[in-house]
Amino acid sequence: MKLKNRIYGLAAPAKTVLVAGSLALLLAACGGGDKGDNLNTGAKQTMSPSKETSQPLKPDELPKALLDGKYKGMYARFSQPLKNEVSEADLKEIGDEFTKGIQTLEKSSSMQLNGFDRRLWLSEDGKKGLLGVFDPEGVIMSIQVQPLTIWPETDKKLSKQQYAWPLPGEWFVFWGGENVLVNYHYEHEAQRYSYDLIQVKEGFSYRGDPLKNESYYAFGKNIIAPGDGTIVSVVNDIKDNEPVGVMNPNQPAGNNVVIDHGGGEFSHLAHFKKGSATVKPGDKVKKGDVIGLVGNSGNSSEAHLHVQLSDGADLFNSRSINIKWKDGLKPLQGDTITIAE
Question: How far apart are CA 202 and CA 113, in angstroms?
Answer without folding.
Answer: 9
